[in-house]
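user: At home tonight, take the chain set out below, taking as long as you need, and be ready to discuss the fold:
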Amino acid sequence: MIEIIHRLEKEILYAETPERKIDKINDLGKLLRYIDESKSKEFSEKARTLSVSSPFQDTLYKKGLAYSLTNLCELNFMKGNSRISFSQGNKALRIFQETKDFDGQSWVLSVLGFSHLALGDYTKALNFLLKSNNLARESKNKKYEAISLCYLAGVYANLGDSVKMLETYDQSLKLIEEIDDFIYLAITKNNMAIDYKEMGNFESALKYGLESLQICESHGLHAAENYTLETIGSIYLKMDNIDLARHYLERANDNVTKLGNEYAEIFVLIQLATLPNKQLSHSATEDLKRALFLSEKLKMITEQVIIHKHLSEIYEKEGKPLLALNHYKKFYQIEKIIFGKVNDTKMLKEQLEKAKEEISTLKGIIPICSHCKSIRDDSGYWNQIEAYIQEHSKAEFSHGMCPECAEELYGNEQWYKNRNN
């Protein structure tokens, strides 16, 4: 990892054009996202500034601007600035669409999809992630296809469809192995650990969590490591191994506090507060209050439900009925919002199926012969247009002949003249 960073720094220093310099600054900013989020933001801000500065004052360097905005979109979401994050992400998406940058569109859509997944808005997450996956497949970008599949698996998990969750994770892992990307491998294995934990399969959850941590530690992915530490701590907590749970959660808490990662801090604080011997302690209450403040700031309503429930139980045990009642009321109010928003999982599953079917329909740029109208497939072979469309969609053909072609082919034939007369 250090070698990659040094190589990018050297390429920035000796870049032959302003555009190439900005591209490499963006590459470095994106890489540092998993190592040092503060440095990542610093480089991304620099790339954004350069993209709108001389010599681009009149025209802008749109590619550099869009990629820097996507980096900042992800970073600001993790820092708790969701309003700014979505604004930057949507602006980047418009630029990528305007410049027909399919890779860029796929990347920012996956970032937006993950953000909505984290906020519990599965409908929007589904929409963004399916579009991301479709674009990645069209542009043959296995990296972005893999990460969109990873997050899609998270949608399946939250909809309770464990079979499709596992199938989608399997597809994602196969692609990651093909491209040999250790960053996305660590992310995917951590997400798998989380979802296996929720399924109650703690053995598999721990396996993937520890594998993710090993990758993070081996490659110095300090920012990504925080999430994995919290995941492993929460798994041990579910397994009633309190000592190991505390060990990993306190490591995670120390790290996220230093890095100022408010998104990750919420999950760590909730887990720390629910350690059995902290249930009636002042620190557990303070941890939950801090987590509640952050979750309200980030508009993470699913986590707010969990926190209000824990606080109401703590205050009830402490003999503070009014405080307990207050949090019970908020618990039920927010839960009602959630169920009013995402209560029909059958409807969402049907929507997911319909959207996934659309992946196989014809979209994007299709290479077609200007003379015979044959279409070139992904393997380089030319096919008749009927065969290609039938293979890539649910359409079927019935053959007829338009008047112009009939006249051209049979205009001199007596039978044709007699029929028309």
Q: What stands out?
A: Residues 375-420 form one domain. The longest helix spans residues 321-342. The mean pLDDT is 82.
